Amino acid sequence: MKIALTGNPNSGKTTLFNAITGKIERVGNWAGVTIEKKEGDIKKSLNKKDMDIVAVDLPGAYSMSPFTSEESITSTFVKNENPDVIINIVDSTNLSRSLFFTTQLLELEIPVVVALNKSDLVEKKDTKIDIKLLSSFLGCDVVNTVSTKGGDNGLEKLISTAVEASGKKQVAPFDAKGVDMSARSQVEDSDKKRYEFVKKIVDKVEEKKIDSARQTRQDAFDRVVAHRWLGIPIFALIMWCVFSISQAHLGPVLADMFVGWIDGLYAAVEGMLGEAASPVLKALLLDGIIGGVGAVVGFLPLIMVLFFLLALLEDCGYMARVAVVMDRFFKKVGLSGKSIIPMIIGTGCAIPGVMATRTIKNERQRRTTAMLTPFMPCGAKLPVIALFAGVFFNDSALVGTSMYFLGIGIIILGAMVVIRITGEKNAKSFFIMELPEYRIPSIKRAAISMWSQGKAFIIKAGTIILLCNAAVQIMQTFNWNFEVVAEGAESTSILASIASPFAYLLIPLGFGAWQLAAAAITGFIAKENVVGTLAVVYGITNFIDTEELALVQGGTDVAQIMGLTSAAALAYLMFNLFTPPCFAAIGAMNAELESKKWLWGAIGFQFGMGYVVAFVTYHVGTLVTEGTKGTGFVPGLIAVAAMTGYVIYLMNKGKEKERLKFAVNARG
Ligand SMILES: Nc1nc2c(ncn2[C@@H]2O[C@H](COP(=O)(O)OP(=O)(O)OP(=O)(O)O)[C@@H](O)[C@H]2O)c(=O)[nH]1
Ligand SMILES: [Mg+2]
């Protein structure tokens, strides 16, 4: 039998789904987290009769009526699942809004069981809900649940009630039969009546004690934290703290332990191979695989700490406030209010971030968001940030924080450019982000979130990154005649000869060495590769100084080996962050953009953006630190001018198109 889980966004559907199936699908303290349905078998402990029960977690919706909200679905959406029973998850702290959708579900002629979820919060607030009365009004079973806790959380009862309900006939207490769903006024009329019907029920079953002191405290706090302007420096400060802890304090301490193990492994394998082993094999195993992968994996603890802290911020409700602060800017440049969600998800990984754009209904807004989301630095880019911040800039927290804000800045600039090119300036978004109440974040939830992202990182390190490092090591060892490259003739290797032409193009950006070009190229396979490849080509086994309990600091060996000035190093970092994302993320972009023209436009734009940002950073940086301009200024300037000129040309063409459209409209 099949049970569909449905309800309003953020009511706890996925949390409940995870609790009854034992899966770990993504939850988040805001609306619109789940974008694709997920299926899972009910846990044995909840399925006493050992039946065949599948649960389906669905994206949240507020309504089934057309016209009403951005978060509406059609009845066929639920019916297509062909469920035997619907469990309607209701956020019991928000009864009146949730029941609107409930009454629509009751019309589908599929048995419904209502889970009054988050009932722990209701209890805390001293609100009373008479579930017997509610059940009789709705004409379906109602069960109290708490999906975030173990023990008696009502889930066993919920499942057994759902099993019993299967096959029963469902009668709707409020029926909108006969309403023409394509006629706006009829739908609005019926919705109004439905609201009144729901309100009457809520008035009767709910006894609310409004804790106005608590509410006022929260509101006062929000007036500061989510303030139009103050919100931004507060966010910056918080991100700075997050980066300090993860990259300068707790992270390196844990990383040190980790790097110790990797060093141990290196020594053990070296011992096992013995003196007699071939130098090529030694280089491949030790420097290529253990060294290259180890250099990336060494950053894992830093990243885990960062993910953990971000998960805490999300869980306590702060990230939803950040979304509100940013939302204002995004709407101004023609993005949807929902665009912020893909971007926050994109800080973990650009792929789910890009996929999350699917919930944006306006095509242009959806495509713009999908092409700009990869500018948010993702988890894979963190080792690159950490490496450069550690090697070239003593105050590493500032580098990371500014990369996030630069990413946001580029997104806003990009949106402004895209809207000029495509026209359609008047598309407005009315989506309003709902603010969850503040709460004490759960260590357990944050740990789960950290673990699931960390796991993905480890799997990637053991597969793609390992293969890439081995390939890089081989290409570096041999020349095109498959002879081992002699010492001093490194530039004749396969790797050097492939990377050199690209390196030429990078001279105006301050980093024209083939080694750096090779690292940037492997970065398109996975961004962590930038670190791994640098380790391999420069023969550095790890970037974390085990003696100093910190990342290697400026002026030390690594900076010298790479031979970069700090301006060039910053430019290189930005180039890796703001050119196109890895191939997998480009694949996700391709799926969501649904247009080759947009895809190539997006990739071109990302390349151009990365190039221009790196060029400006390198030359301005060199001017500030050394008082002169950097190398390759003139050819670089020509390239940058050509790119900018082309974009301006497209923007003017877009303006002309918009003008003509307007003229036609005015005439017609
Ligand atoms: N206190 C409390 N919090 C809960 C409960 N169930 C879920 N939550 C929290 O509610 C938030 C939303 O949970 P999700 O499971 O992501 O909600 P969802 O309904 O799947 O949301 P969408 O996928 O966006 O539609 C999370 O922060 C959960 O920790 C509960 O029973 N009690
Ligand atoms: Mg969900």
Automatic annotation (TrEMBL):
Cellular component terms (Gene Ontology): plasma membrane
Transmembrane annotation, as ranges: 225-243, 289-313, 370-392, 404-423, 457-474, 494-514, 521-541, 561-586, 598-620, 632-651
The keyword Membrane is annotated on this UniProt entry: yes
Lineage, uppermost ranks: Bacteria, Bacillati, Bacillota, Tissierellia, Dethiosulfatibacter
Protein name: Ferrous iron transport protein B
Alphabetic keyword roster: Membrane, Transmembrane, Transmembrane helix
Organism expressing this protein natively: Dethiosulfatibacter aminovorans DSM 17477
GO MF annotation list: ferrous iron transmembrane transporter activity; GTP binding
Annotated Pfam families: FeoB_C (PF07664), FeoB_N (PF02421), Gate (PF07670)
Positions of the FeoB-type G domain: 1-168
